[in-house]
Amino acid sequence: MTNPRVSRAVENIELSAIKEMSMRSARVEGAASLAWGLPSFRTPQHIRRAVAERLEADLEIGKYALPDGLPALREAAAKTHLAKTGVEVDPDRSVMITAGNTQGMNALLHVLLDPGDEVILTDPGFASHMQQVRLCGGETVFWGMDESKGWSLDVEALPDLVSDKTKALILVSPSNPTGTIFSEAELRRIGQIAVDHDFLILVDDPYSHFLYENRPRYFNLASVPALRDHLVYLFTFSKAYAMSGWRLAYMILPEGLKQAVLKVHDATIICTPRISQVAGLAALTEEPVHLEAFETILGQRRSLICERLDAVPELFSYIKPEGAYYVFPKLLMAHSDSRDFSIRLLEDARVTVTPGRAFGPAGEHHVRMAYCVAEDVINSAFDRIEAHFRR
Ligand SMILES: Cc1ncc(COP(=O)(O)O)c(C=O)c1O
After folding, report:
1. How many Cβ atoms are within 10 Å of 114's Cβ, its own excluded?
2. Are 325 and 238 in contact (CB under 8 A)?
3. pLDDT in tens, 146-156
């Protein structure tokens, strides 16, 4: 039912199914939730300790920061970017500190889109990107990934999706929800197409630290200097530093865009909370000693969830995820659609998953399972699924 008080732009978007299912799940006592990509880890101790110290000692801690972020954090982000990609960026002209990649992406899309402009998204792709594009009056153009070829992209099909309204393409590698790592050759070709057709590539990067045995296959497209004016790189602290609640990210953007992004950022949030920026400074300047342990534990959880999926081949088929911490199985049992399936699974078996349809048309008849939760949650979810379907 539409509410006459609500704008058409907002009527036109949906609450992300990830959050919808998580809210439903919170109302079901003891539900085993694989719905939200929220790592079970605590923010590492060295980050917590640095914040605790600064909370007492820093007289400015409770105050606004300048809108583009603390200079020290922008410098640390530029240094980290240089170490990761070999590309030097100016902390004043090309770095913004944002309150998470969600807020950064929103600011960017506000800057880039007029009503009717198009953004190309992988299908499946991250659910919130679709809502963000629509909120800004943009149109989503889906670029299908081929499940029969391990959720790969047909790069030569990309130019056919480009029109004179195309403003951007959003890429996530490793992908949410499939875990696919796009190859260097594919990414370089995508970069070339973006330059030829003059659109921006928005690289949303929460998961590049979680690559398991596939690390040698990872390539960061932001390391191509020729894409300097055609690429925005957004790195979030949420996952790699277990800082999802701090709301912190940095964005490396073409110099000509920063002023426009700054206007939107200022009008919507003024600045990223200073205390979170202090946490980010500790994260980037101290040795990230936690990362190896995070990846090892997530790798064990990936093995576990794959074993549990292998044990129910009559219910799900799946492609083993290469990175990130999601698996995107296809539903083989009788069901009507992925949303109805997910709601029933929660109500009847107390297991929460996210309906695949939320990730694009190609996601229908799939569900996303996030395996960043403790092993006993994964085991409870699958014990219940087995008991439910084998009854
Ligand atoms: C692709 C992608 N982008 C952005 C986010 C959210 O990032 P942030 O917490 O920085 O807003 C997520 C979280 O699941 C994600 O998977």
Report:
1. 10
2. no
3. 999 999 999 99
Q: Which domain holds residue 149?
A: 60-285
- Residue 1 has a pLDDT of 65
Number of structural domains in the chain: 2
- pTM equals 0.96
Tens digit of each residue's pLDDT (9 = 90 or more) over 328-380:
999 999 999 999 999 999 999 999 999 999 999 999 999 999 999 999 999 99
Query: Token digits for 370?
Result: 């996030």
The CATH number of residue 132's host domain is 3.40.640.10
391 CA from centroid of ligand 1 (Å): 37
Mean pLDDT value across residues 204-212: 98
Best residue among 34, 208, 239 to mutate for probing ligand 1, ranked by most atoms within 8 Å of CB? 239
